[in-house]
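Hi! If you just cloned this repository, the fastest way to understand the data is to look at a raw example. We've pasted two of them here, unedited. The first protein comes first, obviously.
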Amino acid sequence: MMDRKAIGYEQYEAQIRDLYNQMIRVAYAKVNNKSDAQDAVQEAWVRILSKQDTLREQSKLNSWAKAITTNVAININRQTKRSQPSDRLADEQQDPDCDTSSEAELMMELSELLGLLDPKARTLLLYKFYYGFKDQEIADAMKVPVGTVKARIHRTKLLLRRLMDEQLHI
């Protein structure tokens, strides 16, 4: 028999997973690219976590998260100004040294691996390696001691290495 804490945590985890899936659908509808959609959702999570104290009604979390995701996805579209897929294909065919497909595959694998992490761990890695925040800045943002941040980043890196190794051996 499971205790109440375990049941509560599982429900919370299921709600977060459901919200993540909703955010992916919203982002994908705006960018039409799986990698950019995942980037948009990750950026949205960072914004949500850093601004969570501004949410007045917890019941509006889903709507708020989807609105943030929409805005981030629109910004990604503005920044990338993607060419038409047929134009990209023609460019790749003209330039045989073009590594965009292997680079895209690598980015897709990395996004999938990050997607396997829990949101806290993913956020830590984004703060540290994508945005370049210092450990103390992350600790301040997440309201935890700097030693906790260092330990979590270390454990998450080890987990990522293990997941990469498992993926290579399959």
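Ok, and the second one:
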Amino acid sequence: MVVRDGFVPMVVREVRQEAEHVVSFALARRDGQPLPEWEPGAHVDVLIAGDLVRQYSLCSTPSEPTWRIAVLREQNSRGGSTWLHDRVREGDIILVAAPRNNFSLDLSGERFLFVAGGIGITPLLPMVAAAESAGKDWSLLYLGISGRSMAFTEALRAYTPKVVLHRDADSGVIDLEATLDRLGAPGATIYACGPAGLLAAVESYAGRRENCCVVLERFTADPDSVAVPQGDHAFVVETSDGREVKVGADESILDALHRSGIPALSSCREGICGTCETRVVQGIPDHRDQLLSEEERQSGEVMMICVSRCLGDRLVLDV
């Protein structure tokens, strides 16, 4: 096995069926060294093959000796979930990067409401545990199609009655607004993860309520944020070894690099995961990701090459 920079070999200690089409994997370092510290909301990058990377939320707790990720077999898998479900078994070695966190939990508030849809339960499990340990006032609303499709419901029984499970197959489509009101969402901090439709509904709800803060973890990007605007232009990217790559008006920097045989890790291709973050040596990026802060955008030091482009005619990148 060839180890890529930033990735370490991990042993799969356990493979467990958590629900219909959902399997979890418990991971430990192959060399026996302690795992790096992490906080609720963190995810890890898993190197599937070549330059294909996928992100999976850590759904164990930071105090556990192994990391656990849970993977839904996607109907339209681009290779990640199918590879893990079909090929990875206990005792296998896979390459995993250190945890990163774009969905941090801030426990300084008084009231918390966690909203999960389907596999979106994974980053919320350690958040729930942290809120309970801190003695916070919290509730969890967990939505699914059926009981068979909802992972970790047995583990959540320990938090009854703070957990509300809604199964469409049993109760029909939820009245989300009335349910959030009943659970005390106004005045609470809402952490939500799940399908785009659910997140849009939660965000809309929070916008209509006073003192209602919402923090989202998205599976997919807002299409308007990554669309190539009419009149976009071609430009040139120079690599760290002096090679020049022309980026067409209708292609990404990432695709142009791959077309030229220059390797670059990537995953979401939507500017929401951070896998393709690249240092900018020279030039002004046109940022179109949904990760960087305004301060990071203004500094121009890094960019997401899967969606972001160039405001001028040339960029020099550390690739």
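That's it. A detail worth noticing about the second one: The longest helix spans residues 121-133.
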